[in-house]
Amino acid sequence: MDYKYWLDVAPSALSAVAGVAAAFAAFNSLKVSRESQSIAEQSALATHHGEASRKLADVSETVACQAKVLYECSMAVWTGWPREVERSSHRGSGGADPRPFRHVLVNAGEMLERHSTNDGRQYHQARHAIFSVVRNGMGQLSDIEYRKLLKVADHTFVDFESTFGAPRRDVRITESLAFRWAYYQLERRVGGEEWDQIWANAWISGGWLKRYRDAFQQLKPTLERELELLRVERKRLQYTVFPLDRNAPLHRDYLRTIGILEGLVDIVDFDLFDEYASDPHPADLIPLVISSVAAAIMTARAIDDLV
Q1: How far apart are CA 57 and CA 226, in angstroms?
Q2: What is the pTM of this model?
Q3: Residue-by-residue DSSP string for 206-222
Q4: Do residues 178 and 162 lie in contact, with contact meaning Cβ atoms separated by under 8 Å?
């Protein structure tokens, strides 16, 4: 009985096993086919976008090589100029135990730069936010607000964002308590005539901002040429079989590099230097210094991001 039973069952069982095996083989064949298709597409992308990849690498290398002087001048404005300005600071006017003045100025510039570039993620048109404190001013300032902030910040030596919170991206930086406190420190510890002299000295031959501006002007043709090269290459690929956005990593790198170059060109083209260098309004002096430091910080970080 058992023998007869197995004779009856065996053919159907073997057929089922064969069916499963065939399905598994078909699945593997499909998987291999898809993987082969993906590999072939990736290979085609690499071939089609080889020239675009090479041009991107060449642009980054060219700008990084030719921007060395500008980078050094930017770092000098970021770290060296605040040390010089500190010599005009009256420490006792900032509270019982205030932070070193150079740290205050650098902190203000870094806050403005981070707020304007979304912490280095968006350089394009960052200039508008960087110079917003010059265009729009600081709003209403008062001794009452100063003393209220002084009670919180005096005797603290960490950055002001740690004390008051980082500036929010969705509101003007001039509404941030951390930034306002930095501004109060700059205003209270250096007098108006001293700020006027500091700004004027920065623009004499060999001055901090004059060297920064001159280095930028020398690099400007290179920035514009390399930016246009990437724009043309991106447009060339737009209507081909494999447009640039089919290659996500390369497309992302193109957008990033183009945004950085646009941000640098925007800064050097901005009329800040021509409009304010020689005869600024007294109320604009501190915002101008903060904005200039922020612009230099953005320049140095943008060049770093290209490497």
Answers
A1: 11
A2: 0.84
A3: T-HHHHHHHHHHHHHHH
A4: no
